[in-house]
Amino acid sequence: MDASEGMITSVENIDWESHLAERTHRMKSSVIRELLKLTMVPDIISFAGGLPAPELFPIREFDEACHHVLQNEGERALQYGPTEGHRPLKEFLAEKMSKYGIWVELENILMVSGSQQGLDLIGKLFIDPGTSIISSRPTYLGAIQAWNAYQAHFCTVPLDDDGMCVDELPSLLDANPDSRFIYVLPNFHNPAGITMPIDRRKRLVEIARQYDLAIIEDDPYGELRYEGEDITPIFRLAPERTIYLSTFSKTLAPGIRLAWIVAPKPIIQRLVQAKQGADLHTSMFIQMIANDICKRGILRQHVKRLRQVYEQRRDTMLDALAEHMPAETSWTHPKGGLFLWASTPDQIDTRVFLEKATAAKVAYVPGFAFYPDEKGGSHSMRLNFSNAREEMINEGIYRMGIAMKKELAGG
Ligand SMILES: Cc1ncc(COP(=O)(O)O)c(C=O)c1O
Predict the structure, then answer these.
(1) Is pLDDT above 70 for 368?
(2) Ligand 1 atom nearest to CA at 250
(3) Position with higher pLDDT, 404 vs 8
(4) Measuring from each residue's beta carbon to the nearest atom of ligand 1, which residues come in under 6 Å?
């Protein structure tokens, strides 16, 4: 037999596209992917990713936790485990959530492999082709990706300084009476960095009750608050209809792919079924490591440290923007989280300008990426301030400012 026979490279591919399910054709954002490739060049200062600061990862503590887990509970850690999640970790999370006024039983919690998986499972349970779902515009890019795959029909309301403009919801819901849920990012919105005050949360709940809608509360950043007081989670205001998601990605490390969902028990049971089809369960080993870290108080200390460092990075970015950006630009002042949202003058289309910015060795995510129909955000960009060190933030914004001023002066 010829050695190359049967090798995948030696055959002519069939027309795979024509073999795929209808929904698969919406599982793309090729323009965005292509654009982000531009940002992967050497020496670039990237404000594009939603990445935590890697130099702060608690690597030594993870190392110790690995040893503890393998020495003390190795057989369990390496075995299959329950879909619902590792009980001791869920006990820790139930206790932690109670500090935010969320009192739940372990049966209300499901461990998932990242909030992103949670969003996908929610799509699997709730979205038929053409089902209307409500979100802000802009909204989290990963939710758009996850729910596009289920052929969701995104109905959107704009954001203002207090988050989703909930007063626009009734007319939108009257026009789309089959809507299934409202997706909301009340703390330090991704991409806008905005936080929803309590009055608006209450109004949102009122509307959800009036129209009998579920609420998906996505809260990866709530613990990363740099100023002001915590605000009551929507789950606490409407525990009968809210599905709450949070994650260890931003407080410990995204590489462990560990997050949790809090929801009414009937929904947790459904999510468990959906998760069994996806991956049986989230890694026991990882859950036990996270549990070891949490129980030893390391998470608490680590979050404290992250708050200090990220607050400084946020301030550095705010100061650098004020110093270097053209006068006609503006930006949000996030009280926490990882992002701010900048608005550029009319002459700058952020999708087009990205090429100029990357040529100047600085990157961001253009605003259109956060609009489900990709129509909007032409004069906006998301900037991440957690990943780069302060001197890099300053240098990156300086480069951006110069490139933008040059563009405004006619290239
Ligand atoms: C709003 C929002 N939801 C969900 C996720 C996904 O988080 P995870 O890493 O837990 O999948 C992110 C990550 O950036 C996010 O910003």
Answers:
(1) yes
(2) 9
(3) 404
(4) 50, 114-116, 140, 142, 185, 190, 218, 220, 247, 249, 254, 259
Between CA 218 and CA 220 the distance in angstroms is: 6
How many Cβ atoms sit within 10 Å of the Cβ of residue 128?
Answer: 10
So what's the architecture of 19-57+301-408 in CATH? Answer: Alpha-Beta Complex (3.90)
CA dihedral defined by 50, 232, 211, 219, rounded to 10 degrees?
Answer: 20
Nearest CA to ligand 1 atom 16: 190
- Give the pLDDT of residue 280: 97
Residue 224 CA neighbour count, 13 Å, CB half: 31
| One CATH from 3.40.50.2300, 3.30.720.120, 3.40.640.10, 3.40.630.40 for 75-296 | 3.40.640.10
**pLDDT of residue 32 exceeding 80:** no
Examine the pLDDT at 4 and tell me if it is beyond 60: no
* pTM of the full structure: 0.95
Nearest protein Cα to ligand 1, atom 14: 50
